Amino acid sequence: MSTFPISIPRPVHPTGIWNWVTTIDHKRIGILYGVTAFLMFLSGGVEAILMRVQLAGPELDIVSAAVYNQLFTMHGTTMIFLAVMPLSAAFFNFVIPLQIGARDVAFPRLNAFSYWTFLAGALMLKLSWIGGATDAGWFGYAPLTSVAQNPGTGIDFWIISLQILGVASLAAAFNFIVTIINMRAPGMTMMRLPLFTWMSFITAILLVLAFPVITVALIELTFDRYFMFNFFNVANGGSVVLWQHLFWVFGHPEVYILILPAMGIVSEVIPVFSKKPLFGYKTVVLAGAIIAFMGWMVWSHHMFTVGLGAVANAVFTVTTMLIAVPTGIKVFNWLGTIWGGSIRFTTPMLYSLGFIAMFLIGGISGVMHAVSASDAQQQDTYFIPAHLHYVLFGGAIMAILSGIFYWFPKYSGKMFNERQGKISFWLLMIGQNVTFFPMHFVGLDGMPRRIYTYAGNMGWDFWNGVATGGVLILLIGFLLVMDNIGRHWKNGEPAPPDPWDGRTLEWSIPSPPPEYNFEEIPIVRGLDDWWATKQGDSYKEIPASGGSGENGHNIHLPQPSYWPFVSAAGLFIAAYGVVFNDLLIPWGLAAIGLTIGFVGVYAWSLEPVNDPEEDSTH
Amino acid sequence: MSQELSAEEHTGHPTAGQYFRIAVILCVITAVEVGVFYVEFLGHWMIPILFVLSASKFTLVAMYYMHLKFDHKLFTYLFVAGFILAALIISFLLLLFGVYS
Amino acid sequence: MAQEHAAPIHGEDEGTTTGLNHRKMLMWAFLGSDCMFFGSLIATYLVYQGKSLEGPLPIDVFDIPVTSISTFVLLMSSMSMVLAYSALTKNNMKGFRIWMISTAIMGSTFIGFQVYEFSSFATHHVEIDCVNPGELTKYEQHIFDDGCSSGEAHAESHEGLKPQTNLFGTTFYTLTGFHGAHVTLGVVWLLSLLLLSFKKGVITPEKNLDVDLAALYWHFVDVVWIVIFTVVYLFGVFPGF
After folding, report:
1. CB atoms C6 and A104 under 8 Å
2. Nearest residue of chain A to residue B95 (CA atoms)
3. Which residues of chain C does A102 touch, with a Cβ-Cβ cutoff of 8 Å?
4. CATH superfamily, region C22-124+160-237
C-alpha cells in the first residue's frame, strides 16, 4: 500500500511469538490480559504472604520496617491496578464482543495497544523493587511523597507507571464504550444487553471520567517532585488535603470500577445455574447506573478524620449510606433469581454464591464506617483492611474466579475438573474468612494498619497468628485453582459449545470460538436470546451480514499490526527516561522513547485496517 | 434504546455566512466581557454576568462549530456528561475548601 | 488516530448499530474525558486562588488587553477551522487549504502570545518610588515595606513570577501550559492533515472525517480557553477575589 510511510511488510500470517505480539484478535488479547494479570495477582500475593509472616507474632524481624512499607504499598497498588482491573479487562475483551454478537471490538489495534501499554506499566511498577519500591501507601498521601520525605526513585516509578496504566485503561475504556454502543448485533437493544456487558459499559464510562482526575493529581505531584512546584508544598501555602481530595475523587469511582464488572459476572452466572432469568433485569441495570452516579458523591468518606467539618462529614455520611441501597437491591435481585430455581452447585455457581455472602459482610462493615463518628474509631485500624478485603477479595476476586471457571470452556475449549474446583472453592472460602475476619477484631481493638510489628502485650498476637495461618489455606486453594486451570487447559476434555446450558450469545458458537466468532451475525429477538432459541422457537435465524456459509471463508477480519506494540514500547522507554532523566543527555532517553512512540502512532494512523493487496481471508 | 439511536441525517448544517455571523457574535460577547470588566459600579454582579457571557460563548461554539445541534444526541450526552461532572466536582471542591478554612 | 472499523465494514459508518461513526463517537467520549482533565486543573487553580503567600499575584502580572487579543485570535481560528471543513464538504479544496493554513497560523499566533506572556511574567519586575508610591497592590506594598524602610529613593524586585514562586505561579503555569500543549498538538495535527490533503484521495469531500475530528478537537481547545479566559484572567484581576 503506497500510503505506508515505512516499508516494513505487514504481518499477515505471523507465526510463533510474533503471532501474539502483533495480534489484534480480542480473544487473544483477552487471554494475554488474563494471564498477565493473574501473574501480577500472584506477585501481589507473595507480597501479602511476606507481610502476614512478618505479623505472625509480636516483634518479629523477618522484613525490615522499610521493606514492610514497600510491601504494603506495592501489594495495594498491584492488586488494584495490575490484578483486579486487568482481570476485569480480560473478561471485557474476551466476553463483550461475543455477548453482543460482534466479530471484534470497534478499534482492534487500539485494543492491542491497551494491552501492551498495560504490560509496560505493570513491568515498570514491579521492576521498581530493584533499588527500592514506592512506600507511601497505595493512595500516596502528600507529603509522604515529597522529595524531602522520599528522595528515592520509588515514588517516581509509582507515579509514572500509574500514568502509563492510566493510558492503557483510558484507551480500553474508550474502545469498549464505542464497541458496546456501536457493534451490537441487529436487535440487540440496550435493554437486551447481557448484564455483564451492561456493567462493563458503566465501568468504562466511570473509567473515562475518573482517570483524568488521577492523571492531573499525578502530574501535579510529578511537577512538585521534579521542578519544585508548590501544589502540595505546605511551606509555600500548598494543601496536602488537596491531594487527598483529588485522589479520592478518582479513588471512589475506582472502587466501583473494581466491583461493577464483578457484579456483572455474578449476574451472568447465577441465572444460568438457577435455570431462571435474572430477577428484575431492569432494576439491576438501573441499580448499576445509580451506583455509578452516586459513586461521585461519596469520596470524602475516606477523609472523615481530616477535619472537613461537621456539615461535610454529615453530608458524606448520608450519601455513603444511600449508596448502600442500590447495592442492596442487587443482592436481593440475585437472591430472587436463586429463589425457586433448579440450582446446580457447580464451581462457578459456588464462587458466585461465595461472592454474595462475602460481599454482604464487606458491605455491612462498610455501612459501619459510613457513620463518620464511628469511622473516627476505625480509621487507619485493621478494621479497614478487613472491610476492603471482604469487598475486594471476597467480592471482586471471588467473582473473577467465578468468571474464570464459568468461561473456561469457552476460552480454552476444554473442561476443568469439577471436583477439584469445588475443593478449591471451599479452601479459598475458609481461608479468606480465617485470614480476614480476625482483622475486624484486632482493628476494633486498636491495632493500626500499616505497622510492621507490634508489642507482645497488646493482646493482638492470637488473632494475628490465626490470620497468618489463613494465608496458608488460601495458598493451597490458589495452587489447586492454578493446577486445575493449567492442567486442563492443556489436557482437559474437549468442551461442547454450550456446556452450562447458557443464556447468552457466547454459548451459541463453538468452544473455543473461531477467529471470526460468528459465522453469521445473529439477529436478536429478546433478552437471553440464545436461551429462547434453544427452547425450540420456530423461527430460523436469518443471517444479517457477511455469512457465506463456507466455514468463515470470505469473512474479512482486521489484520495484525506491529504498531500498537511499537507505540507501547516507545511509551515504556519514555517512562524510564522520565525517571532517569539525567542519564547521559538530560531527558535524552525520554525523547528517544517519545520519538519511537510518535513513529508508532503515526505509522499506525496511516496503516489501513485491511491491506487490499493481500489476501485477507482466513 | 437503539431505535432512538438510529441514524439521523446530517442536514441543515449552517452556511459559511452563518459561521461568520456566529464568529461576529462571539467577538461581540468577548468585547462585552472585557468591557463589563472595566465597569466598576457592577461590583459583585460582575461574576454572574461574566459567567453567563462565557457560558453563552461556550454554548455557541459547541452547538454550531462543533455541530452538536445538528448531530446525534448521543454525542451531546457523551460530552455533556464529562462537562457537567467536571463543573460539579469543581463546585464541590470549592465548597469543601471554603468549609475547611 | 486510527482508521479502524469492525471486521466486515468498508464504508465510514455503515454497519454500525447506531449508524454513527466509531471514530467520531470515540472523539466525543475523549472530549468528555478531557473536560474532567481540565476540570481538575481548574479546580486546583480555584482552590488555591488567594492562598499564595508571597510573590506577584494575578493583579500584578495580568495584562487583560493583550490576553483579550490572543483570545480573539483563538476565537477567529475556530471560525476559520469551521470554514475549512465547510469548504472541504463543498469540494472547494483551495478554500479548504487556505482556511486550514490560516487556522494553523492563528493557533501558532496564540502560542506566540502565550510564550510572550509566560516570559514577561517570569521576568516581571517592579520599581517603586519610595517618596511617592501611589496606589500599591499587596505585592508592591510588600516590596515597598521591605525596600523603603531605611530612606532609599527606590525599591525594586526582579524576582518575577515563576512556577516555583507561589501557588498562583504553580497553578497558573500548569493550567495554561497544558492548554498551550493542547493547542500545539492541534497545530501539528492540522498541518499533518494539510500535507496529507496534497496526496490524492486521502482527504476528499466524502472522506472528510479526519478533518471533522481535528476540527472537533480544535473547537474544544477553544471552548476550554473561553472558560480559562473568564475564570482565570477576568475573575483573577477582579478585586473581589
Report:
1. yes
2. A312
3. 6
4. Cytochrome c oxidase, subunit III, four-helix bundle (1.20.120.80)
Radius of gyration over every alpha carbon of chain B, rounded to an integer in angstroms = 18
Q: Is A587 left (phi over 0), alpha (psi -120 to 50) or beta?
A: left
Residue A491 within any structural domain of the chain: yes
Residues in A 90-129 with any Cβ partner in C closer than 8 A: 102-104, 106-110
- Is A39 near chain B, with CB under 8 Å? no
Report CA-CA distances (Å) from C139 to C54, C55, C134.
7, 6, 14
**DSSP symbols for A120-188:** HHHHHHHHTTTT----STTTT-TTTTSTTT--SSHHHHHHHHHHHHHHHHHHHHHHHHHHHHH-PPTT-
One digit per residue, the tens of pLDDT, for chain B of length 101 reads 333 333 333 445 788 888 999 999 999 999 998 888 777 777 778 888 888 999 999 999 999 999 999 999 999 999 999 999 999 999 999 999 884 44
How far is the alpha carbon of B21 from chain C, nearest alpha carbon, in Å?
A: 10
Integer distance in angstroms from the first to the last C-alpha of chain A?
20
Q: List the domain range (segments joined by +) for residue A550.
A: 25-557
Q: Which of C16, C24, C170, C189 to mutate to test binding with chain A, by most A CBs within 10 Å of its CB?
A: C170
Smallest Cβ–Cβ distance between A104 and the set C7, C32, C53 belongs to C7
- C-beta of residue A291 within 8 angstroms of C-beta of residue A363: no
Neighbours of chain A (3+ CB pairs under 8 A): B, C
- Residue A330 maps to which CATH number? 1.20.210.10
Closest CA to A120 of A165, A59, A180, A87: A165
Q: Above 70 in pLDDT, residue A394?
A: yes
Residue B4's closest chain A neighbor by CA? A189
Within an 8 Å CB–CB cutoff, is residue A391 touching chain C? no
Instruction: Mark yes or no for CB contact C171/A107 under 8 Å.
Output: no
Within a domain: A587: no
Give A440-463 pLDDT, tens digit per residue. 999 999 999 999 999 999 999 999
Tell me phi and psi for residue A411, to 5 degrees: -85, -25
Interface predicted TM-score (ipTM) of this complex, two decimals = 0.93
Tell whether A398 is covered by a domain.
Answer: yes
Question: Residue written as cell 525596600?
Answer: C147
Domain spans, chain C: 22-124+160-237
Instruction: Spell out the domain ranges in chain B.
Output: 9-70, 71-101
Looking up cell 477480519, which residue turns up? A557
Beta carbons of B66 and C47 less than 8 Å apart: no
Q: Pick B61's closest partner by Cβ from C38, C78, C240.
A: C78
Candidates C46, C226, C240; nearest CB to B94: C46
Closest CA to A526 of A505, A498, A502: A505
Residue A608 forms part of a structural domain: no
Reported pTM? 0.93
Given this model, what pLDDT does residue C138 score?
87
